[in-house]
Each structure stands twice: as C-alpha cells, then as structure tokens.
Amino acid sequence: MTGKMLGIDVGGSSIKAGVVDVGAGELLGELICAPTPRPATPDAMMPVIAALAGRLPEAAGRIGLAFPSVVKHGRARTAANVDHAWIGADGAALVRRTLERPALFLNDADAAGLAEMRLGAGRGVQGTVIMLTFGTGIGTALFTDGRLFPNAELGHMELNGMDAEKWASAHVKTVEGLDWRAWIERVNVYLERMHAMLWPDLFILGGAISERFADFEPLLRSQAEIRPAQFAGQAGVIGAALAAAESES
Ligand code: BGC
How far is ligand 1, taken at its centre, from the CA of residue 82, in Å? Predict the structure, then answer.
C-alpha cells in the first residue's frame, strides 16, 4: 500500500483531518481541525469537512471518513454525540456529492483501533484486544488475532444505571472536574466489567488522554495488560486513511 491519503475524524467537539502516508503509516505535516458545528447535522458538517479537505490538496484518491456512529452497509445507524439527522445517512455518498471524491465511511473507534493494531500499540498482538478512545463519548473497537469485529459499542454498556460513557468519558472528567484518581477509579470499574465479559489480553487506552498515560498509569488496575495508544488523538485520522487505502487495494 502506498500513497498520500486523506483521513478525517469527526468527533463530538471537533473534526480533524490529516494527510497520511499509508505506506509508512505516518501523518505528513500537522493535523488540522475545526469545531464540530451545532447542531451537528449532515448539512452543517459537510461544508466544514469540504473546507478541511480543501486545505489538504496533496492527498489523492479515496477519503477515509471516521464517524462517531455505528456504520452498517455504509450508513450511520446511531447518533450518540451528533445530530440524529445522521441516522440513515450514507457518509460516502455525502462526500462524493460535496467533494466529488470517493470515500470510505467507518466508525471512529474502529478506525483508531485499526491504526493501533496495524502500526501502533497493538501491532503483532494475538488474542483479544480492546481499543478504547476516551473523548466526548467512549469508543471501543474489538480485535481478535488482529481482525476487527466492527461496531462494538461498549461505551454504551450500562454502569451505575447509565451509559458507561456518561460516567467515565474524558468529557465527564472535565465537566465534573474529576482528578486523575477519581476518574481512573471509574475507568478501573469499567475495565473490570469489560474484562468479566470479554477476557481481553490487552486494553489499549486512546484519545488525547493517552498522552498523559505516565501520570495515571500507577492508578490503573486490570487483569489484562494495559498500554497507551501510540497515535493518541491522531489514531482516528491515521486509521481512516489506512482503511480507505485498504478498501481501494
Ligand atoms: C458512539 C460510538 C463512538 C464513540 C466515540 C459513542 O457515543 O456511540 O459509535 O465510537 O462515541 O466517538
């Protein structure tokens, strides 16, 4: 696989884009980003995505669009942190219409997980791996022997009578002003529940918080190994571009 491909990662608060050398699995230059419009409808978002893509003309071919929804047969099926107008939307068709370029539309955590499994913290790891992205919500991606089980939505597992992501996401840490100890205690409970059901060999903790892994690592507790994501907040962009390249080849 070679070439410079565009990866776009839509989040609840920002939309990131970058050019990825898919052969080397590296970001070329800086990530650029724009705030996610409110309401986060397809009509409001597509011009923002087009403007970001327009600033990165060096990328060619298919665009990888990572999105915070279950994506089945090319269509968004859920909309936890974006407008419900996305439900049923065909993301690749919207990109084709707006940018006149082919695209691959996939779940954001699946994209981040692919980047980590192919080139980052999970590279070469056999057995069961659960990738977690902590942001506005909690994204999860499940792998067994390197193969993705798509659209795992373990961020919506019930914890304390609510969605896990409403209790333990990075956004909740900020909003509730939790210190590392208080927040990691919640993360530990969450990891324990997932472990009881899926018995992973490895958890990869991703999202921007993974850059602070050294600060909170001593507080983490799990029967499975825990590693920080290597690509931190860039994993979604890199994985979206890799998935787009793989789907072309
Ligand atoms: C969504 C997932 C997404 C995660 C991270 C959750 O609310 O349901 O599809 O992967 O947020 O963005």
Answer: 10
Structure tokens at 238: 């890199």
- Pocket test of ligand 1: the residue of 83, 106, 133 to mutate, having most ligand atoms within 8 Å of its CB, is 133
Taken in order of first residue, the domains within the chain and their CATH numbers are 4-110+234-248 (3.30.420.40), 125-229 (3.30.420.40)
* Distance, first Cα to last Cα, the chain: 7
- Choose among 60, 44, 57: nearest CA to 98: 44
- The tens digit of pLDDT for each residue in 69-106 reads 999 999 999 999 999 999 999 999 999 999 999 999 99
Q: How far apart are CA 219 and CA 216, in angstroms?
A: 5
Distance of CA 147 to the CA centre of its chain: 16
Residues with Cβ within 8 Å of 214's Cβ and at least 6 positions away in sequence, in order, are none
**Taking the mean position of all CA atoms in its chain, how far away is CA 57?**
23
Q: How far is CA 129 from CA 117, 126, 199, 203, 229, in A?
A: 9, 8, 9, 6, 12
* Band (248; pLDDT cuts 50, 70, 90): confident
Q: What gap in Å lies between CA 209 and CA 54, rounded to an integer? A: 29
In contact, 91 and 65? CB cutoff 8 Å: yes
